[in-house]
Structure formats: structure tokens, C-alpha cells
Amino acid sequence: MSKKKVVKFFVAGEPTGWRKDDIQKQRRQLALASRKGNLLPTARALMALSNVTQDKETARLARQDANYFYALYKAKQKRAK
Questions:
Q1: CA proximity to 10, closest of 36, 63, 48
Q2: Which has the closest alpha carbon to 49: 7, 10, 8, 6?
Q3: Interatomic CA distance for residues 70 and 46, integer angstroms
Q4: pLDDT tens digits along 12-31
Q5: CA 17 remoteness from chain centre
Q6: Which secondary structure element, helix H or strand E, spans residue 45, and what is its range?
Q7: Which of 51, 42, 37 is nearest to 9 (CA)?
Q8: DSSP for residue 61
Q9: What is the DSSP letter of 17?
Q10: pTM score, two decimals?
Q11: DSSP assignments along 8-74, one per residue
Q12: How many CA atoms within 13 Å lie on the side-chain side of 37?
């Protein structure tokens, strides 16, 4: 049997430039730029950040931004059909 190749979407320790102190627009631009404009990897990286952080404000803001990128990705997929 052949093994399936695993594709990693998140590399731990890869800087995103995302900071909770920045305004919403700047946070999202930095996160998207760090993933070369790909919506899904950006959303996954932010969701991973929200899941591992101990700071409640960071978790809330990262989850908000992740949900924003998931919604954009879903809308883009819907338009493509």
C-alpha cells in the first residue's frame, strides 16, 4: 500500500507579522501578505494561533480574523462554481 502524501498548511514558528495591538485592517493585510495572498492558509494559521494562545484577547482577535478569511474563501469558491 502506498502512503498518502501529507500537505502541511501551517509551519510553526513562521512569522506572520500579526499583532493584536494593530488595527483590524493592518492585522489582516499583514497576515495575508505572510501567506502570499492565499486565503485558506491564512485562515488556518490564524485559527491555529487562536487555539494555542493563552491570552484571551489574542485568541478572540485571531479567531475573528480567521473567520473573516474563511468567509472570503467560501465566497470565492461559490463565485467560481
A1: 48
A2: 10
A3: 10
A4: 667 788 899 999 999 999 99
A5: 12
A6: helix 39-52
A7: 42
A8: H
A9: -
A10: 0.82
A11: -S--TT------TTS-HHHHHHHHHHHTTT-HHHHHHHHHHHHHH-S-HHHHHHHHHHHHHHHHHHH
A12: 0
